[in-house]
Amino acid sequence: MLFIDPGRFRTELKLQKAKTVQDGLGGHSVEWREIGVVLAHVEPVSAQSRFRAGQFHETVSHRITLRFRQDVRSGMRFVKQGRALEIVGVQDADETGRYLICLTREEGR
Length: 109
Fold this sequence. Notes:
Shape: globular
Largest sheet: 6 strands, antiparallel, barrel
Helix content: under 10%
Strand order of the largest sheet: 1-2-3-6-5-4
Structural class: mainly beta
Number of strands: 6
């Protein structure tokens, strides 16, 4: 069994889900709807800077650990003080239904 210190869950994050909204002209836009606020432990994992199309493009990945929730899926995102962290992977930390580990990507900081 994996031990995770719940006292490390000090970072407040908004959990958001994308909703597609039709524009009435055959197109659509994406709106983000807040579905909850969680306390989590956020760890930076890696950072990359690539030069393409005449400019630098930065990507930062994070590992976010939080208490287990049934409704967290890839394609959702966390928002931390205006920064959007896109969830690219979700796993039950030790298959006990106590904690989730989310791998996230933050673009263009």
